[in-house]
Amino acid sequence: MVATQTFRAPEYAYDPLRRRIQFIDSVNTVTKRYYLDGNQVVDERDAGANRQRYYVWGNYIDELLMFNDDADDDSDYVVCHDQLYSAQALLAKTDGSIAERYDYDAYGKPMIYTATGAGGWWDGNETSAAASAKDLPYLFTGREFDPLDGAALKLQYSRARYYSFNLRRWLQRDSIGYVDGMSLYEYVKSRPTQSLDPSGLLKSYCGCTNAEKKILKADALRAKQSIEILLGDIERAIAADIGEYPAFTGMKLSRAKSILECATGKLDSLGSKCEQTGGQCGAATNAWVNWIFATRIHICPKYFSPSRSPSNRSRTLIHEATHACGTFDGKRSPDFGTIIGWHDNAYTYGWWVDNHFCIPGYDCPE
Ligand SMILES: [Zn+2]
């Protein structure tokens, strides 16, 4: 007699940008169709295109803030996560009660607790399950957890590659080559408690050290105080009927005012991420943002260089924050008076931090 068993592999589908748009688990007969906003899944539907879940994301690419596990509004959950953006607990939005909690081993294998123990949560006796009863898919580092084969096999979808919690390595070679080291399968240089790899291509550190965070906090506060002073200067100029900067026709102070007001808001809402030199952090770069699409200011090592003064650092933050409000780079536009004026120039706003309300080369020394 021969026992037969049918093995069925999961099926995936990707769009032309190689983003995953469909996942079929034929063992559990689950089909998930993903609707994306950029690189984030915002809506998840079944094979019949009925909405199953939708997601609300924060600043970081894998920072899940909230999700709803069906189409109505009464089953919203708030996700608490740690510094790696790994989900730690799920809170019911209605009363803040804990719905589920999660733990991980160092390499991210999730332990999922679906009900409290006799002594409450964190008593060590919680009910564990192979998969989230609330169907939260975003667990370790905020990446997608795929329980396959009745959750006997646990994989993580990290965009370019799949990661195995059991093998503690990637299942595919790194498609960008030896950038992270000589092993094409090694996960974040074997530093899984301090590093992230949201793209599946390149490891990144999880933000800033405590010392760096302290500096950034003080710098952001100083930047906001500088903006307040500058706004006062502008208000006074406007009140004195200097609606346009003398000699520069069409350069409205009201525009400068709105840019600075926007930048203050950005300094509150933009997260900061400390990075290593590489990519857009060249040796000469202090910081960078994804222009008006910025969700965070990327802080490069040079930012913390001891030769830079605190006001110099604040100047960088204001410069980057105004980029997030739509300003361009460059010292002065060649056509100063026509298309791109000083008020659309991130350099000028940064300049004002050290040199007060003036235009470099016009009423301030260059
Ligand atoms: Zn710039």
Describe the structure.
The chain has an 11-stranded antiparallel beta sheet with strand order 1-2-3-4-5-6-7-8-9-10-11, with no helix packed on it. It has 366 residues and is an alpha+beta fold. The chain starts with 10 loop residues before the first strand and ends in an 11-residue tail after the last helix. The chain contains 4 helices and 20 strands. The radius of gyration is 25 Å and the shape is elongated. 30% of the residues are buried. It folds into 2 domains: 11-194, no CATH class; 207-354, Collagenase (Catalytic Domain), CATH 3.40.390.10. Bound molecules: zinc ion. Zinc ion (ZN) is lined by residues 319, 323, 329, 346.
